[in-house]
């Protein structure tokens, strides 16, 4: 598939650094290094980000919260507004680092909506938990909401957002819960078992936005085949029915079976397949317009670099086969930094994801979860919740 695509990248992203914390910026550096060694970056236009300014940030966040983040950037004892916690500890330059990521996501949106490229990727983005007035879940500024607002302000009237992070995309859902122009779909581990505790099928939007929030809560232990069955049973039909002008995706890879913070069981191969389905859906349902972000993912060596390199490659239109060997230069770099233990040898994990079509009436936790989502949301989109063709 021939695609025009760009990546938004600058080493300044690495300043978004909470210190001893799961959100380690090395995951970004290792992804870009791997993508460069494999020649993936050569097939993308790499554009530098610009920090989001006050006017842009005010479209997403309250003025007093922005002031709080500025204060936290210079006062390491600051607490409040969700800052100074274990999840969101303060660090020098927090405001500037967060604004750079947010601005990068806005540029990605402008590149796609403006017709400069079909696809744009910001792997540092996807900070989907940040709320208008407080930080949450490792997220200071909600760059995803800013990207969507950027396109709405430029004239977009129908935007579909699909979030495949293991955690519910609560901040993005909250931003557009009453907005009929934005469809938000989140596939995540059942919130009764994981942060942030929201994202049940009954959350479907409010007022004029009723029917434009869709949540699929997956049981712990769901692997490649179950995840793909759930995705195919909900996402393509809902997105097609909404008929968006652009598809926005948050491609968090903390669904991986080795991720230390959650309990789904996807492989890199399953995540690669999911990214491929999102790419195809953008072409099928959104005229090829696709804005993609990173997100969660805390297997900083064995998962994130491979999965997000696949994301960059998918956007370029030239996939990296899973049997591709990891370049020696990448491995040598890690060994030179003192990394011991087994390192990944290929771009896959020798799994071939396969998913049977969902059928109504299944009694497993997963099939009941799929049915609950379809019954809550599909009628609001004019779809038959019991017809597996929808």
Automatic annotation (TrEMBL):
Pfam families: Hist_deacetyl. It comes from the Bacteria. Keywords: Acetoin catabolism. The keyword Phosphoprotein does not apply. Pathway: Ketone degradation; acetoin degradation. InterPro entries: AcuC, HDACs, His_deacetylse_dom, His_deacetylse_dom_sf, Ureohydrolase_dom_sf. Residues 21-313 form the Histone deacetylase domain. CDD domains: HDAC_AcuC_like (cd09994). Belongs to the histone deacetylase family. This is Acetoin utilization protein AcuC. It comes from Jatrophihabitans cynanchi.
């Amino acid at each position: 598939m021939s695609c025009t695509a760009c990546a938004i990248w600058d080493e300044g992203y690495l300043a978004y650094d909470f210190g001893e914390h799961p959100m380690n910026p090395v995951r970004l550096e290792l992804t870009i290094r791997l993508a460069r060694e494999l020649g993936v970056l050569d097939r993308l236009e790499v554009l530098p980000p610009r920090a989001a300014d006050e006017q842009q940030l005010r479209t997403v966040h309250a003025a007093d919260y922005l002031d709080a983040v500025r204060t936290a950037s210079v006062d390491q004892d600051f607490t409040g507004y969700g800052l100074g916690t274990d999840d969101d500890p303060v660090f020098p330059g927090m405001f500037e680092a967060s604004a750079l990521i947010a601005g990068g996501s806005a540029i990605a949106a402008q590149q796609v909506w403006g017709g400069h490229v079909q696809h744009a990727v910001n792997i540092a983005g996807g900070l989907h938990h940040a709320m208008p007035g407080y930080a949450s879940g490792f997220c200071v500024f909600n760059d995803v909401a800013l990207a969507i607002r950027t396109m709405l302000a430029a004239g977009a009237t129908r935007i579909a957002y699909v979030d495949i992070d293991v955690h519910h995309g609560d901040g993005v859902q909250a931003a557009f819960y009453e907005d009929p122009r934005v469809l938000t779909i989140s596939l995540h581990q059942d919130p009764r078992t994981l942060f942030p505790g929201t994202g049940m099928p009954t959350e479907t939007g409010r007022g004029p936005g009723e029917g434009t929030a869709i949540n699929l809560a997956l049981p712990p232990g769901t692997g490649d085949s179950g995840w793909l069955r759930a995705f195919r049973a909900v996402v393509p039909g809902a997105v097609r029915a909404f008929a968006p002008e652009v598809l926005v995706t948050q491609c968090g890879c903390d669904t991986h079976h080795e991720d230390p913070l959650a309990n789904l069981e996807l492989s890199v191969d399953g995540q690669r397949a999911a990214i491929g389905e999102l790419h195809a859906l953008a072409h099928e349902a959104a005229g090829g317009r696709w804005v993609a972000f990173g997100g969660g993912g805390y297997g900083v060596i064995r998962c994130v670099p491979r999965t997000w390199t696949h994301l960059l490659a998918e956007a370029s239109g030239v996939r990296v086969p899973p049997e591709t060997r990891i370049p020696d230069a990448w491995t040598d770099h890690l060994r030179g930094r003192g990394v011991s233990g087994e390192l990944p040898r290929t771009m896959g994990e020798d799994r071939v994801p396969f998913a049977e079509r969902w059928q109504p009436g299944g009694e497993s936790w997963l099939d009941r979860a799929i049915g609950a989502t379809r019954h809550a949301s599909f009628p609001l989109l004019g779809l038959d919740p019991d017809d597996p063709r929808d």
